[in-house]
Design a protein that fits this description.
Blueprint (H helix, E strand, L loop, with lengths): L7 H28 L5 H9 L9 H20 L7 H25 L1
Helix pairs in contact: 1-2, 1-3, 1-4, 3-4
């Protein structure tokens, strides 16, 4: 019994799907940070966490979720680097680049 290998485009699409939640969380944090310049850091964090459901209302948990999705996006994108079409290779590079930045931001938020 043999199993079929998934096409590399499928891995790239999974990478993009894994990148979206991490990107959403980071963009949400930046929007709250820049829109409330006169609030204290605790008030900013509270405003940010109020936008998520109760089970995700923890800054460290959100940073860990962000990190996990970023690493998953990198893992899926690296499997599709050697695509024959330039579009998919560039897409893989962009996903890895953005996911690496988000992963580093998540790590520094955990400190």
């Amino acid at each position: 019994m043999s199993t079929a290998i998934a096409p590399k485009k499928t891995y790239e699409l999974f990478a993009i799907l894994c990148l979206l939640p991490a990107l959403y969380i980071q963009l949400r944090w930046m929007m709250v940070f820049y829109s409330s310049g006169n609030l204290s850091p605790a008030a900013r964090t509270s405003t940010f966490l109020d936008q998520f459901p109760g089970f995700l209302a923890n800054a460290r948990l959100l940073a860990f979720v962000c990190l996990a999705f970023s690493i998953a996006a990198i893992a899926f994108a690296q499997r599709s680097f050697n695509q024959p079409k330039t579009f998919w290779r560039v897409s893989s590079f962009i996903v890895v680049f953005i996911a690496a930045i988000i992963a580093f931001l998540s790590i520094f938020q955990m400190l």
